[in-house]
Task: inverse folding
């Protein structure tokens, strides 16, 4: 049988009335010994409940102990302090009511797709025919019908992860644990598989009562979860949780969806900020994509338009410069974003700020660009705020890329970072140390040298 999403049995209801969840962590702490002596605290005083019929997302940066907490809940790791309760009873070994989907697929290469899917049932001593039937049904659910006899090496990454889901589905767990199950896949494959999992849950045919999802992807958490638990890092602590009160299927284009993504983003980039449910009137703060235009290209474009009377037809300008319009558009879009120009019906019109920038000397042009950048590009203000919070005035490239990855593909995040550095340098707001791969405030570096 398949669990109907949201269905709560009389036993579940009795457990809930008695304060017994499907699964709960009570004041969990976890430490690991260090090679040089001493110990590292990964989790500290973490309490969490998982109720029937809900999807819980554990969201946090690297070092927040998300995966460690998931494995403690599954009974694969024992906590150093505290306890895990399974339906009100203390868990003292692997949790038989859970199944795990890993980031790294974790398939046995010498077994076929079907044999990998049957693995958990075989380990439990389920008869071969029953295991085969359950595996075939699970493989059909994840779109692998016809691939039963294939081996993992013959499959794409997305297909291998589907086998991982099928292997978990056959167990019909109370709680399905998913440890960043889409992060090793390319963007399109991850989006497709994420949508299929969401569809199974929404149609009420998902083979578990509840899901616990570990992720660092904010949009993924908002798309899939009913409740988002946000963890702080070093050590991992629960900062708070948010309820995602939106109808399913979730519409990414809905203002509420965007507002919640932006709110979580703000909380995640400000470790000291309180976590509370999103106000209904929360405005959207999603960062617009930066056009990939160098400051020199923006300045050159504005000078040409200024010299031609402050207004120019885009096709005519492209023709005169012997450029394709697509090659010209990034500089045009950047000029418009920065308030140096407006675009209307194919014409580019220089603004007063653009006119001043085009005719200014070197020192003044840096000042004007800085003023317009701070006024019109929220991402720059956010980065400056993060630099202010750092004692040494520095933040790593990877940290910024992790943030940008929540809104853009990996390739686009890298291009956004490069544009951000180019603009910030020209505005004399921050610099980038390519050896250390760190961004730093200009004045912070000056003070350090003094």
Result:
């Amino acid at each position: 049988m398949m669990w109907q999403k949201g269905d709560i049995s009389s036993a579940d209801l009795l457990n809930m009335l008695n304060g017994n969840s499907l699964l709960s962590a009570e004041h969990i702490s976890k430490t690991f010994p260090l090679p040089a002596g001493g110990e590292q605290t990964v989790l500290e005083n973490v309490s969490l409940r998982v109720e029937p019929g809900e999807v819980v997302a554990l969201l946090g940066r690297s070092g927040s102990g998300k995966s460690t907490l998931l494995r403690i809940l599954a009974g694969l790791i024992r906590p150093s302090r505290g306890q895990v309760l399974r339906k009100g009873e203390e868990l003292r070994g692997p949790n038989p009511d859970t199944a795990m989907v890993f980031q790294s697929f974790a398939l046995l290469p010498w077994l076929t797709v079907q044999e990998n899917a049957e693995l958990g049932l075989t380990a439990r001593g389920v008869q071969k025919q029953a295991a085969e039937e359950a595996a075939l049904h699970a493989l059909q659910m994840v779109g692998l019908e016809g691939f039963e006899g294939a081996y993992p090496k013959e499959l794409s990454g997305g297909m291998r992860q589907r086998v991982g889901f099928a292997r978990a589905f056959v167990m019909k767990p109370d709680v399905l644990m998913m440890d960043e199950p889409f992060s090793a896949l390319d963007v399109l494959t991850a989006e497709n598989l994420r949508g299929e999992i969401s569809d199974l849950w929404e149609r009420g045919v998902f083979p578990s009562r509840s899901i616990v999802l570990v992720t660092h992807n904010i949009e993924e958490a908002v798309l899939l979860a009913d409740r988002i638990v946000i963890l702080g890092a070093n050590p991992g602590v629960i900062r708070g949780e948010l309820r995602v009160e939106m109808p399913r299927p979730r519409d990414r284009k809905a203002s509420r969806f965007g507002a919640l993504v932006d709110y979580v983003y703000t909380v995640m980039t400000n470790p000291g900020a309180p976590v509370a449910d999103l106000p209904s009137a929360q405005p959207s703060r999603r960062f617009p994509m930066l056009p990939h235009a160098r400051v020199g290209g923006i300045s050159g474009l504005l000078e040409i338009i200024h010299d031609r009377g402050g207004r120019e037809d885009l096709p005519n300008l492209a023709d005169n410069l012997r450029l394709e319009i697509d090659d010209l558009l990034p500089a045009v879009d950047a000029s418009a974003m920065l308030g140096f120009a407006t675009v209307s019906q194919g014409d580019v019109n220089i603004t007063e700020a653009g006119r001043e920038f085009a005719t200014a000397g070197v020192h003044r042009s840096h000042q004007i660009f800085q003023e317009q950048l701070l006024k019109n590009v929220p991402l720059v203000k956010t980065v400056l705020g993060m630099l202010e919070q750092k004692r040494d005035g520095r933040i790593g490239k990877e940290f910024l890329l992790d943030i940008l990855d929540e809104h853009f593909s990996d390739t686009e995040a890298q291009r956004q970072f490069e544009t951000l550095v180019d603009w910030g340098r020209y505005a004399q707001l921050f610099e980038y140390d390519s050896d250390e791969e760190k961004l730093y405030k200009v004045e912070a570096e000056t003070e350090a040298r003094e």
Remarks:
- Residues 1-18, 280-285, 444-450 have pLDDT under 50 and may be disordered.
- Residues 121 and 171 are 7 Å apart (CA to CA).
